[in-house]
Amino acid sequence: MNFFPGRKMNESAGRYFPTTARAMKLAAIRRNVIFASLLLAVSAILLPHAGQASSLSSPSSSHAAGDTFNTKRLAWVTGAHIVGFTGALIILDQAWYSDHPRSSFHFFDDSKDWKQMDKMGHIASTYHLSRFSHKSFRWSGLSNGQSALWGSISGTLFLTTIEILDGFSAEWGASWSDMAANLLGSGTFYVQQRTWQEQKILWKYSYSSSGMAQYRPDLLGASTGERLLKDYNGMTFWLSFNLPSLTNSDYNVPPWLNLALGYGAHGLLGSTHNPAFQNGEPLPHYHRYRSWYLAPDIDFSRIPTQSGFLQQVFSVMNIVKLPAPAIEYNSYNGWQWHWVFF
Hints:
Elements: H1 21-49, H2 71-95, H3 117-140, H4 144-167, H5 176-196, E1 201-207, H6 217-220, H7 224-230, E2 235-242, H8 243-247, E3 257-266, E4 277-278, E5 281-282, E6 289-298, H9 308-317, E7 324-330, E8 334-341
Antiparallel strand pairs: 1-2, 2-3, 3-6, 4-5, 6-7, 7-8
Helix pairs in contact: 1-2, 1-3, 1-9, 2-3, 2-4, 3-4, 3-5, 4-5
């Protein structure tokens, strides 16, 4: 999944910032295309071997599974990547970019937008695309190192191609900070997979309604489904650390127990500042601030099960942070306690 904002347009070209219908349309198309591509990647993993007892979603099986090279499986996986990613990009190009003026390739600095919540979305999206892509290459019989490399390249390449399309659009521009976030996401996956041959630290996502989308539904989402992808005020991105594997503890600690560090932002009715009016109506004043969280979590892929299907489901579930008690510190209200935070 990805969580792109309405990209700030090139103001030097006389175009304005993201309240326009065209900017919102682009944001919606990009979210849908990327989310659909992620689902395609998940399907590429699940469909060929759903129900197999030997699963790559289990860390304990990551050394042995997929050791036998299978040419047909590799062809199937490679074809799924090429067809899925190329098709998604062609649809995106024809559905949006072809209707707007092109330009020479250029960059645009959006590094200060949305208190970097959009960058967190890039990191998490590229991480999970790399993770799923790696699993499909392992299924084909490539080694752990080869699969980690090609999985990371696949995740990075797909999202970077979108930046290139942006770079040739007169109304937008490629973003160095987006590209850096993409590399950080795939790099987080690659380094762990090569070092540990498993993922001891996971990027995760959670959402709870902020109540702010009602003021700017065009920008923050008019429905629950849109708000899950557009309302940064309700999103939290997490780094979830698996304690038993990281500490090599001999204590009787469940192997699935994680401790998660979260980041969020609030009071955002615009990317860099909050407008005073929306369609001629005054908007309430909100302080813009950041929040940090500490909460327990679960690495679902480490829950013991002999079901290959459940192992695959647990692997997909690792995208989402489990609702749990949490400690919050934010730059506006200080320390807070949540009995259940999602």
